[in-house]
Write a structure and sequence with these properties.
2 copies of one chain form a homodimer.
Chain A (H helix, E strand, L loop, with lengths): L24 H15 L7 H8 L3 H13 L3 E4 L5 E4 L8 H9 L23 H16 L4 H4 L3 H9 L26
Antiparallel strand pairs in A: 1-2
Helix pairs in contact in A: 1-3, 1-4, 2-3, 4-5
Chain B binds a DNA duplex (30 and 30 nucleotides) through helix 3.
Chain lengths: 188, 188
DNA sequence: TATAAGATGCGTATCCTATGCAGCTTAAAT
DNA sequence: ATTTAAGCTGCATAGGATACGCATCTTATA
């Protein structure tokens, strides 16, 4: 595992650090799916349809949709003529709740995990409270919005989403260029 | 790269998703370093000293410290007898600013990146504003605290930090057990 | 019974993050 | 001057997380 012939060249990355505090695409896609379905209240939307509209991976979307079904946001109907519907009206789907579900809780740092925490100063560290409050503030702000709010201009959304995607389907090449040239990797 | 004999067994991970919106250890260490130095206002702290106190990697700390120096939080003195000092009094070092610097800005999702954004509905999507406000709320809450606040009980901190670490130095085995058994990977 | 949809389980390609390490530079002691 | 104790710098790498791809099964409708 350590030995072996050295790889040819390898593209050469910059280590250092990069931004965190960022939503996963899982969350991103979750919200997009919900907005799509909300914008199409009549018929049922399908995974393929949504993937094409946003030009994103159908495979990954499948899992997102399944998750949203399990969580009670979507009603997923199998079989021919099946598809997706909102389980509740958009006014009763809260953006903060969705994000919390898809992001999996509010644990901003190691000190918040009961089990694995091994920071030496936990007991006397006030930072914990500050961080906890900040995360709470984040979700509180998100909780002020419902799916209805964010997908409000349904007409415009529907128009955009029904238009055929620019080129072919999903182009996985242009994604996350990690356009970080902001803070740390700056070398004079 | 695609072919080749299948690897023996491989520990078998669960894919799906896991929590994001979490601080990097880079940020974690940055805050710990500042708290340490704040708790030792007389002499100068050294990297080795701090790494030992928290039982964390000296190598990584080196880069953290260097970064904090570049950003103007620390004054790093080289050479024998050198070490670290706060560049400003702790009352003038803001936790929110530090986190923003170490986390590298407030870009919670793809739609916020001018360049690489390719979400189909950006123009008509209100979600962007909600997310932006939430991130702002996060930092606003953090900005309410200074290093002086979080490192307030200096006496207790100093006591804990000066105590020798439990066992030997830095044990890199127990870290980030990713104790996620909360949301998605639940399979009945 | 064909067909269209979602469900599932497994494999994998990249990243990202956190480190390791070797050598260099700077500055205070001796 | 020379030693020595710091931090600086530029590689390299490991390990885990994320986001997919793919094949197959299940369900339900026509």
């Amino acid at each position: 595992m350590t030995g072996g012939p050295a790889e040819p060249v390898r593209p050469l990355r910059l280590p250092e650090t990069a931004p965190a505090m960022r939503l996963t695409t899982f969350t991103d896609y979750s919200l997009r799916v919900l907005m799509y379905v909300a914008a199409h209240p009549e018929g049922r939307a399908t995974i393929g349809e949504i993937a094409a509209a946003y030009a994103i991976s159908e495979n990954h979307l499948t899992k997102v949709v399944h998750f949203l079904g399990k969580e009670g946001y979507l009603t997923n109907l199998r079989g021919r003529g099946g598809g997706l519907q909102l389980s509740r009206p958009a006014t009763q789907i809260n953006v903060g709740e969705v994000v919390k579900a898809t992001e999996g809780g509010d644990v901003p740092a190691e000190c918040f995990e009961r089990e694995s925490n091994c920071c030496a100063i936990t007991a006397d560290c006030k930072l914990k409270f500050a961080l906890g409050a900040a995360v709470r503030a984040f979700y509180d702000e998100l909780r002020r919005h419902t799916l209805e709010d964010v997908a409000r201009n349904r007409r415009a959304l529907t128009r955009v989403l029904l238009a055929p995607p620019a080129a072919g389907g999903y182009d996985r090449s242009r994604r996350r260029k990690s356009a970080s040239a902001s803070a740390k990797p700056a070398r004079p």
